[in-house]
User: What shape does this take?
Amino acid sequence: MRQRIIMDVDTGVDDSLALLYLLASPDAEIAGIAATAGNVPAAQVAINNLAWLELAGAPEIEVALGAADPLEIPLRTTEDTHGPHGIGYADLPTPTRSLSSRTADRLWVDLARRYPGELIGLCTGPLTNLALALRTEPDLPRLLRRLVIMGGAFNHPGNTTPTNEWNIHVDPEAAKIVFDAFAAAPPDRRPLVCALDITETIEMRPVHLAELAERAGSLPVETVSPADPPGPRSAASNPIIRHLTDAVRFYFDFHRDHDLGYLAHMHDPFAAAVALDPTLVRTRPATVDVELTGTLTRATTVADWAGMWGRPPNADIVVATDPARFFDRMIGRIGDFARDRFPAEATTGHQ
Ligand code: BDR
Ligand code: CA
Assistant: This one.
């Protein structure tokens, strides 16, 4: 059975893989995409999503533009992490599809009301638009079937400041609104939180890209390497594999430049996989709050695991998973999808 999902993304190299993962999943139906400002400005996020949808030959899926700025602070973007347009070295064809006339927060509200108890929310960017939607529809926590959030760092260092994870850092006020909104949610509606503690164990390496190419029947099977001269482009015959290789190579380079090794943390496709199948993970309930005033620690997520605040849990934090199982699934799904979209004999032209 297909599960209806609203994605809220700041695409983004790893958001791109999250989108492809859901498009490639027979058990998913993307009901709409909210384009949120984060890695790159919201307008660019929207273009990136439309471009991937078009390349993937996806059915018409609504892409709604989110707020240009976080709720209370100026937008900070991170082109150094995700490339000048958010998709690394990839240069996707300009999409002919157009944006929805609805705003991203309206999309959340309308879809949640249209499919009460059915819709799964997946947030892989800052929580700006979900926070705005909560102002209009405070009952969202009960209307959604499940919410999965990629964000935060608990017993783990940050990736943006010593204690901040990027998605929370960009819009901490929005994150606090979202976690506060789930304070009274029943246990089966608590958000599943994929924080850096777990997503930094999801290490994609060149071998995974090669396996994807093989699975897709794409030639040549390339093994990107830190020894490659800067800025090479993939020659893969399959356009999805070619653009993905160019996107992910940038992410590898970024991680290498930050002494993390020639790999990339696949935060967002992992969260997408969890959204479809929570049995991939083990979780622990906690009360999560967001620091808004600390001089060194603003935008830090704090988890009360032991009930010290005397407040009920408002989140289920992912504490364990099997990364190899996730990669097998991702490579199988996206590889098969790319092969079916561009069968080997039909991939001689350039897209
Ligand atoms: C998150 O930050 C973004 O740069 C990634 O797309 C991911 O959603 C990881 O901290
Ligand atoms: Ca993201």
The radius of gyration is 19 Å. DSSP finds 13 helices and eleven strands in the chain. Residues 10, 12, 14-15, 39, 124-125, 268 surround calcium ion (ligand 2) (CB under 6 Å). The chain has a mean pLDDT of 96.
